[in-house]
From TrEMBL:
It comes from Hyphomonas adhaerens. The active site is at E379 (proton donor/acceptor). Belongs to the peptidase M14 family. CDD domains: M14_Nna1-like (cd06237). InterPro entries: Cytosolic_carboxypeptidase, Peptidase_M14. GO terms for biological process: proteolysis. It holds the Pfam family Peptidase_M14. Gene3D superfamilies: Zn peptidases. GO terms for molecular function: metallocarboxypeptidase activity; zinc ion binding. The lineage of its organism: Bacteria, Pseudomonadati, Pseudomonadota, Alphaproteobacteria, Hyphomonadales. SMART domains: Zn_pept. SUPFAM superfamilies: Zn-dependent exopeptidases (SSF53187). This is Peptidase M14 domain-containing protein. Residues 168-404 form the Peptidase M14 domain.
Length: 422
């Protein structure tokens, strides 16, 4: 973990702003904080120290929130190396996933004191810093005001461009590049199953045996939940490996994947919603939005679902699952899945909660109730190290394949026909 010193006191002591500038700054800051300034306005519209995002350009420094990930709604220079950065959601009220991302280009080596000022949210995500274009990330854990709507931290930067993001970067282009890579693999079919509310392609991937029972996977419903997206990618890549377990699984089952359910929200840097202000994970059932309706229409009546996983990120790693009791002949799956994970991971295993969000139109409930299949919302903690996100998702894929091939652990006679690799 990366810790930097704070020079806040020193920087503030160097400030000699005029009363006028102070007044303008306060009013502008208040307007931004109250969400009065239109989010995503074209910039820069410089009024001296105060600039609207997504691009704020100062003499030797340039903040750029147009990198297609999170948002930067405005900036205020409070001192030579001291800045307040304003971060707004797409609308309100909203889930407090205070989501930001921008690049910072500097002509010189310098130390900056930055404050993230949120409207309609509090600080949530530790700043992830990359100075190699997003290849590697470190986090800043020493934050002043970490539990408030103004979070401050110090940052040493080298000349060049540094990425500062609430989570590692997975913008829409990154996610599409991943889809392109998977679609190019042998046996994988890519389908444009629909068009988002803003006209973006909704891409699905399928592989495994045609006309066999299908494992349904979805991801990308909530834009900031990048660790969930990374877990989904790792899970799918494991299913596609060329070992005995994965080959046997693909011979017995179909996999149907909607990797980016909410491309508009991801492209717009939204905290939660699609382009029409709807949480798409409250629209499975009503199907008022193209993003959910298209996926349902793509699979309904065409494939035969037998299990479902939906990948997300949240405060703590947890599996929200369909209940052990009820309709369906694989109700044992979520419990066995959790037990197998716990056997390997011990106290690092996710918790399991049955019946969470009962009665709400989340995907987990709709797939369970519609197809009488076991369903899991796979939630990855915001703070799990990336290596662990990857390795635990691989393990989860292996457990899923084994359980679906072998049947319930205590009833080996129910196993599918054929040789099951151990
Ligand atoms: Zn989510």
């Amino acid at each position: 973990m990366f810790v930097v010193r704070s020079e806040r006191g020193t920087s503030m002591a160097m400030l000699t702003p005029s009363v006028l500038l102070r007044t303008i700054g306060s009013l502008f800051g208040l307007a931004l904080a109250a969400g009065c300034v239109t989010a995503g306005s074209p910039g820069p519209e410089s009024i001296g120290a105060f600039q609207l995002g997504p691009v704020c350009a100062y003499e030797s420094l340039r903040f750029d929130g147009s990198i297609g990930t999170g948002r930067l709604n405005g900036c205020r220079r409070d001192g030579p190396e001291t800045f307040t950065l304003y971060i707004h959601p797409e609308d309100a009220p909203i889930n407090p996933s205070s989501w930001y991302a921008f690049s910072l280009t500097s002509d010189t080596q310098t130390h900056l004191d930055l404050t993230l000022a949120y409207a309609h949210g509090r600080h949530r995500y530790a700043p992830h810093i990359s100075s190699d274009g997003g290849q590697t990330w470190r986090t800043i854990d020493r934050i002043e005001g970490a539990d408030t709507d103004r979070a401050s931290f110090g940052l040493d930067i080298a000349p060049g461009t540094t990425l500062i993001s609430a989570q590692p970067r997975r913008n829409l282009a990154d996610r599409q590049a991943w889809i392109d890579g998977i679609a190019a693999m042998p046996g994988v079919t890519r389908t444009r199953y629909g068009t988002s509310e803003q006209g973006r392609s909704l891409d699905g991937l399928e592989f495994g045996a045609e006309d066999k029972p299908a494992l349904i996977l979805i991801g990308g419903q909530h834009p900031p939940e990048v660790r969930g997206a990374i877990a989904m990618e790792s899970f799918v890549e494991r299913l596609l490996e060329d070992d005995r377990l994965a080959r046997a699984f693909r011979e017995q089952f179909r996999v149907v994947l909607g990797p980016v359910i909410n491309p508009d929200g991801i492209a717009e840097g939204h905290w939660r919603h699609n382009s029409r202000g709807v949480d798409v994970n409250r629209d499975w059932g009503p199907f008022t939005q193209a993003e959910t309706r298209s996926f349902k229409d793509w699979i309904d009546g065409r494939v035969f679902p037998i299990a479902f996983l939906d990948f997300h990120g949240t405060w703590n790693s947890v599996l929200y699952t369909s209940p052990d009791e009820g309709e369906g002949d694989r109700n044992w799956f979520p419990g066995a899945f959790h037990a197998s994970l716990t056997e390997v991971l011990g106290e690092d295993a996710p918790a399991r909660v049955q019946g969470h969000n009962a009665g709400s139109s989340v995907a987990k409930n709709w797939f369970h109730e519609t197809y009488a299949i076991p369903t899991i919302t796979y939630e990855v903690s915001d703070a799990v190290p990336l290596e662990a996100v990857l390795s635990r998702a691989r393990l989860s894929a292996e457990i899923t394949m084994r359980l679906l091939l072998e049947g319930p652990p205590d009833q080996p006679d129910d196993a599918q026909d054929g040789e099951i690799p151990k």
